[in-house]
């Protein structure tokens, strides 16, 4: 078990190195906040769809049956609805502007930027395929419930249907089910574009962490309360429910890794967009990302043992 723990920790440590590089480059002025925003947009709208499509192109034909397809969507939805329900039990004494950020941070985890690179490294291409379902569920719920909760007003159907996760799935699923092989001229750029997801995404996470002053990391108890709920309680409850359903091992492990990820980058993006507490959102991402270096390997090993 120790060898497995060290192997997973090593993969997470590689991710952490990219985060540190992102932190240093922003602190040294190599990347500006505007530059980080532009990289984030590139990751969201170009790299993420390519990654999802590439996962379907790499998947073994016939490996995805109807039951696994159903569970691929149902289990992430269960995970997020449990977090939504639990969020109403906490942070009641916080002022409204802080409360909605803390609740959003508890509900929405980093299934794309951090979850997919980890699944890709630990589980492999088949795991990324299942991860794409989690990304779609995340996008649907974050652009409906999360969008309105953070102050976005009415839901825009166009934004909901044209989000990166849905686009990637709409393109990738037919290619998989009809066993369509794209020409190398098209497939190769998609594969190469998807390969930059891990380093670029972690550079962005490091950049957001660089925005927060170190002394503020230890002064906000609510952030650590949220971190405990996000990194320990939420994935533990999800793992317990998932084990009752008994999905295949690849789906179970990949979804647990994603459910155990830290606070989503959307927390900052939405907070900035809707004039919320962006500093609190940045602290939430920073603290949970740092602590997840310990908690994600623990949940990965625990899931492997229970399987």
Describe the 3D structure.
It is built from 14 helices and no strands. With 307 residues, the protein is mainly α. The protein has a single domain, classed as Na+/H+ antiporter like fold (Up-down Bundle), CATH 1.20.1530.20. The longest helix has 29 residues, at 278-306. The radius of gyration is 18 Å and the shape is globular. 46% of the residues are buried.
N- to C-terminal distance: 14 Å
Summing up helix and strand content along with how strands pair, one would put the structural category as mainly alpha
Helical fraction equals: over 70%
Strand content: under 5%
Ranges where pLDDT stays below 50 over 5 or more residues in a row are none
Domain unit count: 1
* DSSP summary, beta strand count: 0
Query: What's the overall geometry?
Result: globular
- Characterize the biggest β-sheet: none
Instruction: Give the rounded overall mean pLDDT.
Output: 83
Tell me the number of helical segments per DSSP (H or I, 4 or more residues long): 14
Radius of gyration: 18 Å
Q: Report the CATH architecture.
A: Up-down Bundle
Q: How is the CATH topology named?
A: Na+/H+ antiporter like fold
Q: What is the succession of H and E elements? A: HHHHHHHHHHHHHH
The first-level CATH class name: Mainly Alpha
């Amino acid at each position: 078990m120790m060898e497995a723990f060290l192997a997973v920790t090593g993969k997470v440590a590689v991710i952490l190195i990219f985060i540190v590089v992102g932190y240093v480059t922003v602190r040294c002025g190599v990347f500006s906040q505007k530059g980080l925003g532009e990289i984030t947009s590139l990751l969201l709208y170009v790299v993420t769809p390519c990654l999802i499509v590439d996962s379907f192109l790499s998947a073994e034909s016939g490996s995805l049956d109807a039951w696994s397809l159903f569970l691929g969507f149902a289990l992430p939805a269960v995970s997020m609805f449990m977090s939504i329900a639990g969020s109403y039990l906490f942070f009641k004494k916080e002022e409204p502007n802080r409360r909605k950020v803390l609740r959003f941070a508890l509900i929405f985890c980093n299934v794309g930027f951090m979850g997919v690179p980890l699944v890709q490294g630990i589980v492999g291409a088949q795991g990324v395929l299942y991860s794409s379902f989690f990304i779609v569920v995340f996008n649907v719920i974050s652009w409906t419930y999360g969008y309105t909760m953070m102050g976005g007003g009415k839901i825009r159907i166009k934004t909901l249907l044209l989000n990166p996760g849905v686009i990637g799935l709409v393109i990738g699923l037919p290619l998989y089910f009809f066993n369509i092989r794209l020409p190398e001229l098209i497939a190769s750029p998609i594969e190469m574009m998807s390969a930059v997801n891990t380093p670029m995404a972690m550079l962005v996470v490091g950049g957001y962490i660089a925005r927060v002053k170190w002394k503020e990391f230890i002064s906000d108890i609510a952030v650590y309360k949220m971190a405990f709920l996000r990194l320990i309680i939420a994935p533990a409850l999800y793992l317990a429910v998932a084990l009752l359903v008994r999905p295949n091992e690849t789906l179970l492990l990949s979804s647990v890794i994603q459910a155990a990820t830290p606070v989503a980058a959307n927390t900052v993006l939405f907070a900035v967009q809707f004039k919320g507490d962006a500093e609190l959102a940045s602290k939430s991402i920073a603290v949970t990302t740092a602590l997840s270096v310990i908690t994600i390997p623990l949940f990965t090993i625990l899931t492997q043992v229970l399987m």
